[in-house]
Amino acid sequence: MFSTEDWRAAGATQLDDAGRVLGSVFGTVPGQGPVISRRQWPLEGTFDAEVVTCRTATGDIRQVYCKHGPDIDLTDPHAAYGQRGGLGREAAVYAYVLEPLGVSAPRCIAFRRDEMTDADWLVLEFLDGATPLHESRRSRSLDRAAEWLGSFHGATEGLWPDLLLSGIPFRDADWYQGWMDRTAGWAGALHLRYPWLATACRREDLYAPLLSSPHSVVHGEFSLGNVLVRNGEVYPVDWESAGLAPGEIDLAFFTLGWPRRLRRRVEAAYARRRWPGGPPPEFEATLQAARIHACFRVLGDSPLGPSTDDARAIFKILQSLL
User: What is the pTM (predicted TM-score) of this model?
Assistant: First the structure.
């Protein structure tokens, strides 16, 4: 992220960047640049983000939310072994999934590559007045997020063969085993504290239900910080970790570490919306496997592992699941 000082020092160049990109999107008025004003997005994220007020070729004034930064490849630590795919994957989700389905989500206006700075730009509708779910004081918002998720997974179930060429990756056995292998690799002396860990990391049966369950489009990092709420409507954002996998993975990640009563309530809201006639018999087994994967996903994300406190909490959850 840019610091305030970096942002000011790079102001002229950044304005040129935004002018080039937004000019290619909206056109320009002769003698006037497309950018009227801009402000840095206050929440920290992977990419530089800002709200830009711009002028279109027809003279209209509008606000847009822009994310921009370099492309992501598998050697980039941020990619997390392919978990995150950068703005290109996020743009693919908007183009091939969210917009065709017509679900509540910010509208993707454009995806551009600025060759002069070698940066990708994602231009989205600005949701004025929206707040992250973790700032919502309404408990009902958690249920609404789960209901949105259940509807989305139901709508995208079975679509994955048509999406294989879209840039949204399919999650297979090697994917799930990779997180377990990396957890076992960095744990080191922790294997003495958790003697069950080495055996667990070799158990293919722990993720087997995820291979046979119906696949949907999953967000990949469906969390309180990646869901916006406005006027009671839910808007999931930051889709760069999207993949093709059982929807229960999103539900497990969303509720990881929650108190049991709250978790079960939200899971029930999800199931009611996804399966109005009742969940299939394999739902609980799939969700259990997804919870285990969510633990390994957190533990195996970094070569150094999570912080000590986070690791202790996740190991406790994982042991209880096993």
Answer: 0.90
